[in-house]
TrEMBL record:
Biological source species: Aureimonas ureilytica
UniProt keyword Transmembrane, yes or no: no
Domain annotation OmpR/PhoB-type: ranges: 124-223
Name of the protein: Transcriptional regulator
Residue span, Response regulatory domain: 1-116
PANTHER family: REGULATOR OF RPOS (PTHR48111), TRANSCRIPTIONAL REGULATORY PROTEIN TCTD (PTHR48111:SF67)
Record-linked PROSITE patterns: OMPR_PHOB, RESPONSE_REGULATORY
DNA-binding region range list: 124-223
A GO CC term assigned to this protein in UniProt: cytosol
A GO MF term: phosphorelay response regulator activity
Amino acid sequence: MIVVVDNRELVTNGYKSLFSQEGVSSAGFGVDEFRDWVESASETDISAVEAFLLGDFPERSTFTRLVRSRSTAPMIALAETKALNSTLDLFAAGIDDVVAKPVHVKEILARVGAIRRRDVAVDRNRNAIDEICVFTDGRDAEVGGEPLVLPRRERRILEYLVANKGRRVSKQQLFSAIYGIFDENVEENVIESHISKLRKKLKMRLGYDPVSSKRYLGYGIGV
């Protein structure tokens, strides 16, 4: 899930719509409500955030410490105009990247992937475990050495599980990552249906189910 912060609803709603078209869940906040949310949100909701996209507002350089107290997700600042001193100040404050508008959401997602790869020192564009390899550039996952075409939601679930390899994630965490934390139009149990279909396809390809599940603990790969 991408969190977009800007006091202009036109900006937050616009990016939410564009991210949705790319199959990526997002949530939009005004500055004050974002501060309240970061301070009070559950660990489950915070862990579902893949990146923070900060619009042009005066307080954003002071937000980095608040965000970092809760999350290690990339922080990207949107710049209305190119200004060297402003950009340097944002980097000094702890912003991971500064992008000048207009910018396509695909570029933002690519930059998020680049920051995450840099931070965890993995190979470019890919994240793998055993016979499963997922990509951050939109390519289909590779399972058993061959591409596996999956519906958008199932692919996102697989990407999230591989990104969290070695530990379990709850159904609620998966739901928040795939659908967003404020999507009230979708039942949380839909995740079970997506995972069931995904596991069947993985088992057909690999001959075994790589996804383990434990009641109350959640799902995991490589656990």
